[in-house]
Specification:
The protein is built from eleven helices and 17 strands. By secondary structure, it is α/β, with parallel strands linked by helices. GO terms for molecular function: phosphatase activity.
Length: about 325
Amino acid sequence: MNKLLPAIVSDIDGVLIRGKSTIPNSDIVVQELLNCHYTNGEKHNIRIPFYLLTNGGGCTELEKANSLNRIMGSNFDRHHIFLNYTPLRPIMNEYQNKLILLCGAGHLTEIAKDCDLRYFYTIDEYSALFDQVEFKQYDDGVIRQYETDIKQRNMEQMKNQQIEAVFIVFDPIKWEESIQTICKLVKEKKDLPIYVVNNDVTYADNFKLPRLAFGTFTNALISILKKEYNINPNIIYYGKPSLNTYKYVQEYIHEKHDNIGNIYMIGDNPASDIRGANLIGWPSVLVRSGVFRGRDNDPQDPGKYVVTDLMDAYNKILQLEGLKVVQ
């Protein structure tokens, strides 16, 4: 009987990089995992499946891989990357012939095309054309460009159709417009599905303290809909720590690789990376190189193992699995 082999899933920000800088030694670990073979004493050509799971987005998986490669000198491909909306691709496929609203910063049109979405408005397009915020100046040239873009997507047949779902695929920047527009749509259709892809309240970058993240927007939206309109919105959560996301990644790994045993999750955010791993039953490895800086374990969402950084996590996994790099 073949011995089961591990897979490794890692967060990006706070584990591999901080901002646009590589965390020391993380590039060495990445190079080994992407390019080396391992031995367990029985087999000598083992490859460890290695994937990245992030609540970041705003671009395609290929764009994210290329961005990481520029920072780290690595050779990630798009199939190594699970962005915040990647597990939503099967759901988006169900909306190919329906009208949807895409919200958030980043390259929304490119994301829509990469997901084969046909009929959509971006939040900027919809707000400017159908739901302008009072007292804001809307540039006529920008509005004409929106109209041209929409016409090129052959949206004529959707002119009088209702929005059937909202996908918030990256951190919204224009909160006032986004919240006003989504609230208006929810008032018209109280069970309107709203898919959100990042539940993090904080994340780590080059700033000394954790930054507020996407989850604060979702909390604000829910609060306003409840307080002002007495509506409990139909929020469908994806992104870490939701089981929807972890199940998608787990199924993908088992579909692509045989004889997988432990799937290790390496992360710096206890409430996101570690909570999701613990919920699904993966061994969780909490690092101190990002959001988490505690001396001991996190009391609310404890990692199974607590180490300093990615290098320590990698060595711990090799030790636990009885694996060595083939020189």
